[in-house]
Amino acid sequence: MDEETAHRALTEAIGHYRAGHHDVACALHHAILSAFPAHVDALQLLGLALYRKNELAAALAQIGRALRLRPGEPALIQNLDFVVGGTLGSIGHLVDEKRYAEAAALCRAILRVRPDQPQAWLALATALGVEGDLEGAEVALSRIAPGQVSDEKRGGMARFLRAQAHDRDDQGFVGTIVVPMHNMADYIERSLDSIVHSIRFHRDRSGDAGRFRIAVVDDNSTDGGAAVALAWARRQDEPGVDVTLLTNPRNIGAGWSRNLGAATATGRYLWFLDADDFYFEPHIHLCVDALDRHPYAGYVRTGKHFQGIDADISVEFRTQSENTYPCNMAVRLECHRFVGGFPEAEMFFPNTSDDVAYSRCLESFFICARTSVPTVHYTIRPGNAMDVYLKSKAATEQGGPSQLLAGDRWVATELYIRRRLRVLRDKLSEPWSGPPLITDGRPRMVAYTPPAL
User: Fold this and answer.
1) What is the mean pLDDT of residues 236-255?
2) Least enclosed by CB within 10 Å: which of 26, 121, 146, 316?
3) For 278-296, what is the mean pLDDT?
4) What is the tens place of the pLDDT at every residue in 432-450?
């Protein structure tokens, strides 16, 4: 093909392009380029024809090549802008359809010809971030200069990537143990030591070296307990055990403190332990084993040992206490979040019935794996809940802890629980990926038989 023939072919190709015969136009442009590979007009017009055929990456490549041969030409820049804009629209549709790999490929096609295109970098960061390539997404986001995209979009993407990085770091965690503490300087080290001993026991028996987090929440102690906990944390050298110390600005109660600690939780499972109580070594291992073996259960409850009076506790009192005490259990983190944690209404402070409300919510929506094996020691000390119970003689007579609430407080607590259950029932229609939800509100339990220890 000589130059005159190429010119006639170009004119013919333009006619076919305008008539919508894009396949014919492409064939003519290819014929021209086989004879004249640097024919700028054929390159850019081929790019436009390919764009009309929705061959977007190829279209960008051809127009980009033409622009490299003739830099700065206004018509080429205009055509490239046109194709880039249309391609960005297609990328948006691909992202909406969750076709992230295809979206990322088109982003890269744009960036090969327009390496400073901020919307392409943002779309690439989105596609890579959702696909799990956090490093690539962070690099893409870093290529956007301040002011090139809205602060809302840039900030939202940065926040998303931080959350993804947090989730990635959490993958090695088994779970979190939350320890609320108020004036427990004499007990807190024993409690924390028992957690570490229980983690070691689990690791020895399971062979799982997964990580744990201990979140100590100092509820505005005045006895130096926070300093004792901090000193313990600094001495703690068990591998893969992170310790977080949080402090409430005022004394707000155990329920609030447990929620604060749970807000920092990582891993699959969540435990609670009061600062004056302690775990027996098998506790964490049995909880993990129970929930791993019963994936349909939302939480597990074990038995409880009452200091000094265990043999005298009535069956009714023991059952009710073990079904409301927050420390002889482990709950899947998503189930804790579903019920909204412990109630924080003022009516629950300083009374301890927040754990009753929390337990009622759990049992109304999730199956419980249950064993009577005692794995937690409950400490009886002057002024604590059990001391009050004992003085009322309810522990060794018929009845249980909930009956110790004063009349109006009992009514208020019951009404609060019923209202909370009503609100939670509205969530049954929302998407849920956790264990099966109980829809009729009737508690269900499965017996868990622990392995020989």
Assistant:
1) 91
2) 146
3) 97
4) 989 999 999 999 999 999 9
**DSSP of 341-403, one letter per residue?**
SS---GGGSSSSTHHHHHHHHHHHHSEEEEEEEEEEEEPP-TTSHHHHHHHTT-TTSSS-GGG
Is the pLDDT score of 414 beyond 90? Answer: no
pLDDT of amino acid 392: 63
Say if residue 9 is in the same domain as residue 156: no
Domain match, 383 and 443 both: yes
Domain hosting 131: range is 116-169
| Residues 157 and 77 both lie in one domain | no
Is 111 within the bounds of a domain?
no
Q: Which residue has better confidence, 432 or 153?
A: 432
Number of domains comprising the chain: 3
Q: Extract the tokens encoding 270.
A: 């969540």
The helix/strand count (H/E) of the chain reads as: 18, 9
What letter does residue 240 receive in the DSSP assignment?
T
Task: Look over the chain and give the mean of its residue pLDDT values, rounded to a whole number.
Answer: 88
Comparing CA positions, the residue from 112, 287, 316 lying closest to residue 199 is 287
Residue 106 forms part of a structural domain: no
Together in a domain, 199 and 85: no
Judge if 258 and 359 occupy the same domain.
yes
Question: In this structure, what CATH number is given to the domain that contains residue 272?
Answer: 3.90.550.10
Residue among 237, 260, 241, 238 at smallest CA distance from 182: 260
Phi then psi dihedrals of residue 64, to 5 deg: -60, -40
Which residues does residue 301 pair with via DSSP β-bridges, in sequence order?
A: 329, 370
List residues bridging with 445 in a β-sheet. Answer: 368
CA distance 296 to 89: 43
pLDDT tops 60 at residue 396: no
Q: What would the mean pLDDT of 353-378 be, rounded to a whole number?
A: 95
Residues 265/333, Cβ–Cβ less than 8 Å = yes
- The answer to the question of residue 411 being in a domain is yes
Quick one: 275 and 136 in the same domain? no
- First-residue to last-residue Cα distance in the chain: 87
